[in-house]
């Protein structure tokens, strides 16, 4: 078995306002640092161009959306070409008048878009009113082919669903990527915060284990105030991480600092793990038919 290794980086940053140029340039500086260190593939966090505007429902926030291609994809396409990297970005897509998506866009060492993924699972919770803004994705769970392999790109709330990870892996995804924006309600107790974070960490490591693939997660950090009077805002918990194909944590960022991670993934070892733990061979697909139902009555 020939050796195959990939250097993967991610950027964890805070966002202070909706000045896209400032936020893009901050991301670009971190991308440049990672590229200089040898990163071949870099992941940015969810909706990195602006504040997390889903804390309330405001029709003016639709002005933040962009078409694809558009200014954001032009900017990051240039960055991918300049540094000769595969780059996974995230943006608020305006598909048409009144039709918007939360979309990840991938570039493969060039200005051209290699592929995109529209967030499939859309939350609607206090402080995370995403159903107001985003139409659920309609592209399914299809990996994006790049020069370094097939990438299974999913987005934030998708990370809680084993079906999404499984279908990406079944279609040949070699690594799962989760650009993310998740944090604590400031009224949560310390114990509740720990439980929430542990659940988030565990479910994604479980996707790595169940599918024998590495998982790369980029979350935002910092506090973002709510536009709604009396609302406590969100403290994004950072702690971006990379897990190997057995769920082992290879690197993890802090909770409150802007930083980057760079990990060399041994894809030869990933293949070895799949041979030792043949989950896909032993799946009882002849008895899984009811999984497509909403509930078993």
TrEMBL record:
GO terms for molecular function: acyltransferase activity; N-carbamoylputrescine amidase activity. The keyword Transferase applies. The keyword Transport does not apply. It comes from the Bacteria. GO terms for biological process: putrescine biosynthetic process from arginine. Residues 6-267 form the CN hydrolase domain. Pfam families: CN_hydrolase. Keywords: Acyltransferase, Hydrolase, Transferase. PANTHER family: BETA-UREIDOPROPIONASE, NITRILASE C965.09-RELATED. This is Acyltransferase.
């Amino acid at each position: 078995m020939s050796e195959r290794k990939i250097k993967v980086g991610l950027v964890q940053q805070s966002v202070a306002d909706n000045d896209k140029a400032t936020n893009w340039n901050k991301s670009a500086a971190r991308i440049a640092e990672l590229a200089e260190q040898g990163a071949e593939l870099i992941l940015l966090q969810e909706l990195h161009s602006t504040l997390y505007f889903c804390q309330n429902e405001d029709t003016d926030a639709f002005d933040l959306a962009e078409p694809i291609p558009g200014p954001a994809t032009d900017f990051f396409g240039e960055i991918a070409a300049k540094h000769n990297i595969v780059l996974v970005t995230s943006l608020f897509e305006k598909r048409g008048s009144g039709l918007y998506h939360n979309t990840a866009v991938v570039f493969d060492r060039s200005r051209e878009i290699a592929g995109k993924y529209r967030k499939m699972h859309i939350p609607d919770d206090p402080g995370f009113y995403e159903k107001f803004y985003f139409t659920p994705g309609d592209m399914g769970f299809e990996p994006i082919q790049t020069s370094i392999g097939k990438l299974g790109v999913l987005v934030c709330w998708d990370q809680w669903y084993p079906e999404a990870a499984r279908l990406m892996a079944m279609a040949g995804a070699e690594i799962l990527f989760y650009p993310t924006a998740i944090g604590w309600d400031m009224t949560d107790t310390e114990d509740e915060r720990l439980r929430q974070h542990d659940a988030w960490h565990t479910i994604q490591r479980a996707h790595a284990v169940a599918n024998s693939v590495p998982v790369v997660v980029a979350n935002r950090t910092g506090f973002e105030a709510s536009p709604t009077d009396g609302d406590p805002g969100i403290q994004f918990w950072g702690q971006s991480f990379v897990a190997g194909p057995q769920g082992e944590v290879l690197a993890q960022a802090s909770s409150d600092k802007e930083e980057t991670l760079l990990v060399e993934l041994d894809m030869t070892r990933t293949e070895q793990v799949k041979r030792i733990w043949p989950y896909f061979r032993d799946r009882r697909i002849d008895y899984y038919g009811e999984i497509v139902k909403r509930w078993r009555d």
